[in-house]
Amino acid sequence: MIKKIESILKDRPNKSYPPSDLVPAAVLIPLLYIDDALHILFTKRSQQVEHHKGEISFPGGTLDDTDSSLLGCALRECHEEIGLLSEDTQVIGRLDDFRTVVTHFVVTPFVGHIPHPYPFQVSAYEIDELIFIPISSLLDPSNYARKDKMGADGHLYHLDYFYYQEHTIWGATGFILKQFLELVYQFSPEQPTLHNPHRLID
Questions:
Q1: For residues 63, 64, 65 and 70, what is the CA-based torsion angle, rounded to 10 degrees?
Q2: CATH architecture assigned to 2-11+22-185
Q3: pLDDT (tens digit, 9 = 90+) per residue, 156-170?
Q4: What's the number of CA atoms in the CB half-sphere (13 Å) around residue 41?
Q5: Where along the chain do its domains lie?
Q6: What one-character DSSP code corresponds to residue 141?
């Protein structure tokens, strides 16, 4: 399946934003096999971080002066947040950039295959919990909802929500996850996706 995902993502054109006053950031979608089932690793952010306290996210963060690229940023943040070494990550593609509304980030998502089991070293300051979710659960339409939210700028935004046990994935992470599932698995829940140019996430 990893090779199939790589072939799907390898040659597709990616939507990028030109340089602006938005803050560049990058995340990694870590794929790993647990008991022969493909999972995605998410993190639950602590209450101590500056942005998106307590939310479910992909490991990642803002571009640093020491980063040679956005991919380098994603890999560095993975090491800082969960102890994942860059040499243990097989990067297999990337998705479209996404803009956030409140925090003014432009986020570049990369997709990577990582080993399991792995000696993760979690940053207690940034991360409360590692969450391993089987992709089969994320593909279940009963675990998905689309909700509308009026932003402070007066635009109506369509947000993607995914549910797993006691966890709720939404915001930028929900949007990025939705695109990944659409591209790789043709995920199409009953509620249609609206391709709205103002579909920007808090």
A1: -40
A2: Alpha-Beta Complex (3.90)
A3: 888 999 999 999 999
A4: 27
A5: 2-11+22-185
A6: G
